[in-house]
């Protein structure tokens, strides 16, 4: 069946790799995630946001996730390690509803609340979740928004001096931190980047590894989570733009930095946007090249294939979670 994150994170920290946390809203994404994880013998976290629940229907999502375990077995994995996790839970009620519906892990995101309120809300969720052996991810520090300038973004970094108090008071199983990542396909403005003189492409500023180090020093061996970790692969952006899309200057986190983070106590890396880009790039290509096509399988199929390739690349070449089952 589905598992929580406890053992998974312990092994990942000791083994110097990170567990992929991939968001999904639909069947093709789920198929691609499970196929990639099963073929490479990787544990995986299936992530569902509140928006995804509303889009896909909570009951359908629950049975799809349970079905994912059976599908992984059909693909030859004897003991799949699959977590179904609520991404960015915004209230006790949302978390409770997911726990009651069989989720094995939840995130309560109180990062935008005043510190004491974040502590109180997170603690309440932990107390409920742990009765059912459901693990809880909390968050300290605010991820930058596209509109934030560098100074604003840095002021939102997780404060290392708060993490011990937060983890002790709340009892969370893992902690999401802010060290310069952000959500979406526009993680940095062109002004925050330099340009590669050869390619003319934007080179983003590095993540704040000094802040990560300071956090890890305060919490030795404690599971750390990175949100907003899409790399925004240039090939997908180019493909989208080539086939009629318009994504100017989209930029993500260089994979080299995620590779480095994976080797540390960062044991969960969240990726959503890259999958959306792959899906959209593949669909646009089919539409542009075969305008008479109207069977969804003819464009969702190639989208699924490209996402499978993307997930495999992340698992094997970036997070290092292959051959861990
Ligand atoms: O953190 C946000 C995730 O990428 C989910 O996005 O709320 O649009 O489903 P969403
Ligand atoms: P990206 O937008 O970088 O894929 O981040 C996803 C995420 O953090 C989901 O919680
Ligand atoms: Zn996130």
TrEMBL record:
InterPro entries in the cross-refs: Aldolase_TIM (IPR013785), Class_II_FBP_aldolase (IPR050246), FBA_II (IPR000771), Fruc_bis_ald_class-2 (IPR011289)
Transmembrane segments: none
Swiss-Prot/TrEMBL GO biological process terms: fructose 1,6-bisphosphate metabolic process; glycolytic process
Top-rank taxon, per record: Bacteria
Pathway stated in the Swiss-Prot or TrEMBL entry: Carbohydrate degradation; glycolysis; D-glyceraldehyde 3-phosphate and glycerone phosphate from D-glucose: step 4/4
Record note on cofactor: Binds 2 Zn(2+) ions per subunit. One is catalytic and the other provides a structural contribution.
Cofactor: Zn(2+)
Gene3D superfamilies: Aldolase class I (3.20.20.70)
EC number: 4.1.2.13
Catalysed reactions listed for this entry: beta-D-fructose 1,6-bisphosphate = D-glyceraldehyde 3-phosphate + dihydroxyacetone phosphate
Binding-site positions, Zn(2+) 1: 88, 183, 227
Family: Belongs to the class II fructose-bisphosphate aldolase family.
Protein's recorded name: fructose-bisphosphate aldolase
């Amino acid at each position: 069946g589905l598992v929580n994150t406890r053992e998974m994170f312990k092994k990942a920290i000791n083994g110097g790799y990170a567990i992929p946390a991939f968001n999904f809203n639909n069947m093709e994404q789920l198929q691609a995630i499970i196929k990639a994880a099963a073929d490479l013998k990787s544990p995986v976290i299936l992530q569902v946001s509140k928006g995804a629940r509303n889009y896909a229907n909570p009951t359908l999502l629950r049975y799809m996730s349970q079905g994912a375990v059976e599908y992984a077995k059909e693909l030859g994995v004897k003991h799949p390690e699959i977590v179904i996790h609520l991404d960015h839970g915004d209230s006790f009620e949302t978390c409770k509803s997911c726990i009651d519906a069989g989720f094995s892990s939840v995130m309560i995101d109180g990062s935008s609340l005043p510190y004491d309120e974040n502590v109180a809300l997170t603690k309440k969720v932990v107390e409920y979740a742990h009765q059912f052996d459901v693990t809880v991810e909390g968050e300290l520090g605010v991820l930058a928004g596209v509109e934030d300038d560098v100074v604003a973004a840095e002021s939102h970094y997780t404060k290392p001096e708060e993490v011990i108090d937060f983890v002790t008071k709340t009892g969370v199983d893992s902690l999401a931190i802010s060290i310069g990542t952000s959500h979406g396909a526009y993680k940095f403005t062109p002004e925050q980047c330099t340009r590669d003189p050869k390619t003319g492409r934007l080179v983003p500023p590095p993540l704040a590894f000094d802040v990560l180090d300071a956090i890890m020093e305060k919490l030795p061996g404690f599971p750390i989570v990175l949100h907003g970790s899409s790399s925004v692969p240039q090939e997908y952006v180019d493909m989208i733009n080539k086939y009629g899309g318009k994504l100017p200057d989209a930029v993500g986190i260089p994979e080299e930095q995620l590779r480095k983070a994976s080797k540390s106590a960062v044991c969960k890396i969240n990726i959503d946007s890259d999958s959306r880009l792959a899906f959209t790039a593949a669909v646009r290509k089919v539409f542009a090249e075969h305008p008479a096509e109207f069977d969804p399988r003819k464009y969702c199929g190639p989208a699924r294939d490209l996402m499978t390739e993307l997930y495999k690349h992340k698992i094997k070449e970036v997070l290092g979670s292959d051959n861990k089952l």
